[in-house]
Amino acid sequence: MVAAGVLAGLSLLSLLTYGYLAWDSLGLGPAQTEATSTGLGEEPGAGGLSSQPHIIFILADDQGFRDVGYHGSEIRTPTLDKLAAEGVKLENYYVQPMCTPSRSQFITGKYQIHTGLQHSIIRPTQPNCLPLDNVTLPQKLKEVGYSTHMVGKWHLGFYRRECMPTQRGFDTFFGSLLGSGDYYTHFKCDSPGICGYDLYENDNAAWDHDNGIYSTQMYTQKVEQILASHNPRKPIFLYIAYQAVHSPLQAPGRYFEHYRSINNINRRRYAAMLACLDEAIHNVTLALKKYGYYDNSIIIYSSDNGGQPMAGGSNWPLRGSKGTYWEGGIRAVGFVHSPLLKNKGSVCKELVHITDWFPTLITLAEGQIDEDIQLDGYDIWETISEGRRSPRVDILHNIDPIYTKAKNGSWAAGYGIWNTAIQSAIRVNHWKLLTGNPGYSDWVPPQAFSNAGPNRWHNERVSWSAGKTVWLFNITADPYERVDLSARYPDVVKQLLRRLSQFNKTAVPVRYPPKDPRSNPKLNGGVWGPWFKEDEKKKKSDKSKGANKQKKNKNKKKAN
Predict the structure, then answer these.
(1) Catalytic residue among 71, 99, 129, 353
(2) Which of 1, 44, 209, 436 is the most buried (most CB within 10 A)?
(3) 447-478, pLDDT tens digit by residue?
């Protein structure tokens, strides 16, 4: 009993030391919490809480697999640890290796090969966005009465107005359109001389909000405002896509206090950013309780891809990093926290993928999934809440036909089934197959961050035999991808290559257009924003049609 009391005291002290708001500071003692949980201090059930849950999806940016307290990190994340411990930890959870792909799959429930976004990310100067014929998660939730709000990073294209978040299902949007930018000034340079402002409220530049506030804190304040002004008896979908902990590595000074001992400057800055993010999620949770949402809410937390070691992130003991199809690039931190869970305080080791949130959340919201929508995601709520088997047995990590081809790849190396020069990766049950150029493949242990600068001497390097373009791993037995089994099990390799070939037959053409000079913010009032004008294109075509008619008439007269 004494030991438990001491631990509890230390836990409380640590929260206060971090500068978190105490529960009582918001008037949330036990009595007030019960009163506010129904919204207006009525008896529970008196207001008739909606059977549709409030959905809060929190997406962190570039958080490494190891970079959470419950995965053994030296970075303290008491909020994430507590929410995960009281909910369900997802320990076989996969996303995509980069920003745009994960976000597109979350919002559509489809693999990249089915949206045309299978190569890289959407660049600021590209006339490209999530194809408009794809139905989005907020659109489906609006159909069944949800209020839909997005706060944070969009990164799904904006070259025309129809691509903007408010045109893709969100009632309101406050955040950035690009993949990264300064956390305080909200400016982004894509290349020398191509720079602009990137903070939006709905469809307009949010100059009024440019008060030099750190984006993680600014986004949290916006979430609190949305929750304060909404009626908790009506269902709400909140998509909070924090910019943190993506580069540039910036954080308010007070968050460095506990990490002065970290010599590596990138790791130290990264730790401070993550500490601030953890506090932000604490404050979001407080707001859910204060304004009466919590008891009927589902909070989902996910990183969008693995960490980038050169920018302070750690995926140890997994292999590889952001931008690769090794486990370190695609296996993510994730959990679900909700009073509605049946098996609270448990760990889910069933296969879960970011596409699964689309059908899962629509079903929980009592919505309908159209039969003509060909989804790649599965409803996995019973898997998470009740501990049942996952309906998912495979994941197409990706097929990227225009990524740099592996020099030694060939159809022969793929047994005539698949060209192994093409970058691809697939998981089927316990097996994972990679072909082509899988990217940076080192293991980066914690001691790699022990020096002032990046130190690759500590990294475990692997020298492949010349010409290697196929790898096979039993991920269940070997989650760190240390033992390549492709030579030992050629029949398994062939089976997975056939599965890749089947998926590839359903792929749509890649959308990756060249830069458009009209995207320059200088031509748009110094702001990154839609530049493609459909009306102008129509006018031009109408003018050319008119000119052609006049020419034809002149020619007729001459002929006469």
Answers:
(1) 99
(2) 436
(3) 888 775 545 545 666 655 567 999 999 999 99
